[in-house]
Design brief:
There is one protein chain. With 381 residues, this protein is α/β, with parallel strands linked by helices. It folds into 2 domains: 185 residues, 3-Layer(aba) Sandwich (Rossmann fold); 108 residues, Rossmann fold. It contains 15 helices and 14 strands. Strand 6, helix 8 and strand 7 form a beta-alpha-beta unit. Helix 2 packs across helix 3 and helix 2 packs parallel to helix 8. The longest helix is centred in the middle third of the chain and has 18 residues. The protein is globular, with a radius of gyration of 21 Å.
Length: 381
Amino acid sequence: MSNANIQEKRILTTGNSACAEGAITAGCLYFAGYPITPSSEIAAYMSRRLPQVNGTFVQMEDELASITSCFGASYAGKKAMTATSGPGLSLMAESIGLGIMLEVPAVIVTIMRGGPSTGQPTNASQSDVYQTRYASHGDYEIIVLAPSTVQEMYDFTIQAFNLSEKYRIPVIVASDGILGQMMEVVNIHSNIELVERKKPQVPPEKYKPFEAFDDDLVPGMAIAGTSYSFYVSGLTHDIEGNPQMTPEAAEVLIKRLCDKIKKARPQINDWEEKHLDDAEIVILAYGINARGVPEAVEQARQKGYKVGLVRLKTLWPFPDEVMERIGQMGASKVIVCEMNNGMIIREVQRFRHLFTVSGITIPTTIPFSPKFIYKKLMEEV
């Protein structure tokens, strides 16, 4: 079954399957992974679908090999993806930093489960939010998307590939065990704009793999094995890829790697908002845990309370813009709902000069129900 044959369909499917089909739609032709609950269905799906589109599926010996294999496939010119859960993402941590240094496009899907350690493999969690941002050592920026529906598992995977290719960076889709396993109707789009990585802008004899000519600070990327000869390294390097151990070299490189994402925040960051025009209190949530918020907000508004909502679609880079917008619209309090002991709330607390911040932050494996959110909201009004 070709990609074109399925783009007009509406199908009932799981989040994990929608994610995998989104990757196929985005043009993914390489998947390397190691099975881990509750993400294993992504690998199983890709093992069936990739041969149908002349792609390659490899079950690797572990997560370390999985992610580095994807980097190699990406430098060979293929869109590549791996999928895992919290313990597997921990094993990928060092290589995430390698991907940042190599400026290699790749997509990492993590289906969060209860932790730490083995934790609760078959349950959901939002406790890996910091791991998606700070898994690797050193200064770097990364892009992390947080779907809330099975449809968004499909859409955000496509978006992750587009962002990865555009900015030459590993992009993480952070979902959870419930959303990965639940079933909903998904629209397989027929009109999708796909982004391809920037090609070299100079002839082979003048090519330097980390030389950025444009204001976006993203270098053109040559494909290994072509007429472009180049060297890349995880070491601090100059624009030719040669290792450089000077403080000046570190400052120039790390600043560019961070600035290419910081400058693009208006194009990267995304969120959903409702009733901000008159809200005195705003509930902020993301992922599976955001699904109960709209009902709780509407119930409160029917009682006369001026409550609004913000659902983050982008977790990292953190969307400071929406925090500033909440302040500009006059809300006096933000309540952060998340299934962990308090992670995103710490980012929101940076804006306490604009509004007060409280949280419903519980390290549970069960998303908050509308009734529970409404009850907690009434304690705040």
